[in-house]
Specification:
With 371 residues, this protein is an alpha/beta fold. The protein contains 18 helices and 13 strands.
Length: 371
């Protein structure tokens, strides 16, 4: 059984299932799936699009779906008794499944660690009790888990295998009906409905205002877990030519000069493409205040956390305004020394993510656990 909780986990899970099937074509896999896992021979018991939540308050509004999914997976674990339970991030949900699997003597492999080194570190005690093997994607996570007695291995980051460009800038922009000679900004408002509702209106306002002062164009990249019709409806309210990208998202980001992105996996994807970016994030105020009490890091963007410095701007909560987006964008578009320095450091950051082949290493690890 494989359980993912968001769009990035769906991608990592799909690559893992493909790697497993190359080793054992008879392998049966089922669990929670998104569009990417749905394109493999995977038995989807529940859609990841119904699970996504971005904070304490926001998740509470989705408790009905979360509870239905948990009851279904709990029943499936008891009745079908898989040889292995693979969990991908999504800790609030997945750790409960890990506890049940442990009671049923089903081994648990956790792929892509929850960021417990950043907040709510006490959860490492639960992981030590209920998880048989951690497969982490950042090298600094190894010492943290080892210090708490958790069996852990660094497998490299799966995005190193996923982020590839197939078409050049001119081809991509021409196909989208945009001008390759114009500066281009890509909008990545998030992979959850609530993220899009918080971020995209500010991004669209900034787009309209920025386009009134200079020759510039925009495109929007849709995550698989975001409703396409709803996103296009929001974009259509702005009187700008702004294509919404459903496929070949890496090509679209690579064709851009600057990226406005919600904090999350998209920041690392953008970094691997060596594109200057502005990281944004907004939550309900209650969730934000609770997070401020619990989080122990200086940055929210994974790019900045790995770099150990404020490599790219972060606009969080009250700082996320159209005016601030415009001001930061002017700098990153016009200041060539600043752009060059960011691009150079993004190239160095890639080296910190380890070797490619994460899905293959996890597949070998998984099969060793069921043999």
């Amino acid at each position: 059984m494989l359980v993912v909780g968001e769009a990035s986990g769906d991608i990592h899970g799909a690559n893992l299932i493909k790697a497993l099937r190359t080793r054992d074509p008879t392998l049966k896999a089922y669990g929670v799936a998104g569009e990417q896992l749905g394109q493999t021979d995977f038995e989807a018991l529940f859609s990841v699009s119904k699970l996504t939540g971005m904070g304490f308050v926001e998740l509470a509004g989705n408790l009905g779906n979360v509870w239905r999914a948990y009851r279904l997976l709990r029943r499936t674990l008891r009745q079908r008794r898989p040889n292995l339970l693979i969990l991908v991030d999504f800790p609030e949900f997945n750790l409960r499944l890990a506890k049940l699997a442990k009671a049923l003597h089903i081994p648990v492999l956790y792929y892509v660690s929850p960021q417990i080194w950043a907040w709510r570190r006490g959860r490492v005690r639960q992981i030590a009790r209920w998880v048989d093997q951690m497969a982490v994607v950042f090298p600094f996570e190894v010492s943290f888990y080892e210090s708490h007695g958790v069996k852990v291995v660094f497998v490299g980051h799966p995005l190193l295998d996923a982020v590839h460009v197939k078409e050049d800038r001119e081809t991509v922009l021409s196909r989208l009906g945009l001008d390759p000679a114009k500066p281009t900004i890509a909008l990545l408002p998030g992979s959850r409905h609530r993220e899009v509702s918080y971020h995209l209106p500010v991004m669209l306002e900034a787009s309209a205002r920025l386009s009134s002062e200079r020759e510039i164009q925009f495109l929007v990249v849709r995550a698989d877990t975001v409703d396409a019709g709803e996103l296009r409806s929001m974009v259509a309210r702005v009187n700008l030519k702004m294509p919404v990208i459903d496929q070949a998202r890496y090509d679209a980001v690579n064709a851009s000069d600057l990226v406005w992105t919600a904090s999350g996996t998209a920041t690392l994807e953008t970094a691997l493409l060596r594109k200057p970016m502005i990281i944004v994030y907004r939550l309900s105020w209650l969730t934000y205040c609770l997070a401020r009490l619990l989080v122990r890091v200086d940055h929210i963007g994974m790019v900045n956390l790995i770099a150990g410095e404020r490599l790219v701007p972060e606009l969080v909560q009250a700082d996320l305004t159209a005016q601030r987006l415009i001001e930061e964008s002017r700098t990153l578009l016009d200041n060539q020394p600043a752009r060059s320095q960011i691009i150079e450091k993004l190239s160095e950051l890639r080296e910190k993510l380890g070797p490619s082949g994460a899905a293959d290493r996890v597949a070998d690890l998984a099969l060793a656990m069921v043999s």
